[in-house]
Amino acid sequence: MQILVAAISDPASNGFPEFQSRRTNASNVMLSLQHDVGRWCTEYSWSADDGMLGLKVLHNFGRSMEDGANLSPSPPSSGNESGVKRVDEEDPVEGGLKGRVTAGAEFYFSAKEKSAGVSTGIRFTTLPDATPPSFHSPHTMSSPLSTRTSPTQPPTIVTALFNPMMGHISSAYTARVSRNLSLSTRFDFNVYSYDSEWALGAEWWLRRNPTAIAEEPTTVVPSAPIEKANDIHGVVKARASTNNDVSLMWEGRLRNTLISLGFISDFSRSKPIKAVGLEVAYFSAD
Fold first, then answer.
1. Tens-place pLDDT, residues 42-69
2. 37 three-state secondary structure
3. Is residue 240 part of a domain?
4. 30 within 8 A of 69, measured Cβ to Cβ
5. How many domains is the chain partitioned into structurally?
6. Is residue 87 part of a domain?
7. Which residues of 147-159 are buried (b: 16+ CB within 10 A; e: fewer)?
8. How far is residue 17's CA from residue 240's CA, in Å, rounded to a whole number?
9. Range of 40's domain?
10. What is the pLDDT of residues 116-142, one digit of tens each?
11. What does pTM read for this prediction?
12. What are the φ and ψ backbone dihedral angles of 27, each rounded to 5 degrees?
């Protein structure tokens, strides 16, 4: 369970011109409560600016921990002596990829605007999934359940989103084409205005020793030196769309500091650079 609190303070006298023209107060407080139990995940949110109440629900189909799956730290190559499937093991679909289906929905209501909305989504991901290593926590990466060998099928994620009230449809396809490279494409379309956008993205993960792939024993938990040999210290992300938007970001780690630097550009303008961003995060422990 996790609670998030976000706030922004921008008095009307010093506010941005676009906010002043709309007579909108830019100051706001947002609260969010997230509850994740594995198979189900829910999030409750509230925004003070317009009295917005939101509910998000996500369900993972397939076996889970309460179904008797074995999550003990046994080596993945031990042949599964217990005879019980792990949480990340599913029956393969005949003639298709082995994976898991996830479905979710979002409901929200604004007391100020007296309006409501709903959106739905579905996702298919292969096992092992295509989540980039840059999103993996050190605990997940060092877990004996994590995959250390080349996957038997291409890691792939297919996502589809639909907002029936706004008429917005979005579909995305992501695949890891190599150990350090992921490619993705997304298509957005609105059934009411016929507006559409096609975007392409890529991620390249930087490793401390990109040429050495550690040979890990299959009967014991990997030791710390082996884990550090393949530790990811940075990632480069790029994105381009049919709206002439091009974005590039580098994210790297310097000791206990995480640094993100990037820019957003629009080549249809006389000054193509729209924004430059820098984020620095410090954590006290590895």
1. 999 999 988 899 999 999 987 654 454 4
2. coil
3. no
4. no
5. 1
6. no
7. ebeeeeeebbbbb
8. 29
9. 1-76+100-117
10. 999 999 999 987 655 655 555 544 443
11. 0.65
12. -75, 140
